[in-house]
Amino acid sequence: MINWLFLDKNICYICKSNEAVAHFLCKDCLKKLDYVANQFKIDNYQAHAVYFYNETMKKLIADYKFNRNTSLSKVFSSILYDYGRVHKLFDVDYILPSPSSRQTINDRGFDHIRMICDYFIDDINPSYLDNFTKERNTKAQHTLSKDERSYNLKGAFKFDGDLSGKSVLIIDDLITTGNTVKEMAKVLEKSNVKEVTALAITSEHRLN
Ligand SMILES: [Zn+2]
């Protein structure tokens, strides 16, 4: 059984007043989120984003990452788990939570994407792809120009191993330009990966 089912009382994690109906959120707060279930390509890779990156989602992600409201990891976990199951995204060999650099983890106090995946990793078939690391700190992608963005990530990720015949699902919080996914996929390709897909909680893409 998934850990997050029984941890807390059934109260919405955003407004902390109404009864939660799904993903630890109440009806009203869920309505403020913009469910899009977008599927799009980043280069040749299939990517999925569950929600549009609207003001409510922006605040939620910031509250989690920068205010260290770690209880929100359960909200995001529930969202990704449901989406991944329904869309059969967990039929892969490995799950790769987009890694943070050592410095970011130390500053923040937790590995924010990994924490989200920790809730469901034991309940799905794939295991974590170990030893895929972010070697250096990079600037937040959204603060940079288009050219700076791709340069910013060059050589940021590292993996040693052979992924011949293996498939990997990258999990991230936000997909903006897709450069992070591209850069990670590039490193996986060097290890002969068969297939890479990506799943994010939210994206600025709006396709429907
Ligand atoms: Zn609420």
Explain how this protein is built.
- This protein is of the alpha/beta class and 208 residues long.
- The chain has one domain: Rossmann fold.
- 32% of the residues lie in helices and 21% in strands.
- The chain has helices at residues 27-32, 55-65, 72-86, 102-108, 112-118, 146-153, 179-190; strands at 35-42, 45-52, 94-97, 127-128, 133-134, 157-158, 167-175, 195-203.
- The chain has a six-stranded mixed β-sheet, sandwiched between helices. A two-stranded antiparallel ribbon has the order 5-6.
- A hairpin with a 2-residue loop joins strand 1 (35-42) and strand 2 (45-52).
- Helix 3 crosses helix 5.
- The N and C termini lie far apart (34 Å).
- It binds zinc ion.
- Residues 12, 14-15, 18, 25-26, 28-29 line the site of zinc ion.
How would the blueprint of this fold be written?
Elements lengths: L26 H6 L2 E8 L2 E8 L2 H11 L6 H15 L7 E4 L4 H7 L3 H7 L8 E2 L4 E2 L11 H8 L3 E2 L8 E9 L3 H12 L4 E9 L5
Parallel strand pairs: 2-8, 3-4, 3-7, 7-8
Antiparallel strand pairs: 1-2, 5-6
The structure holds zinc ion.
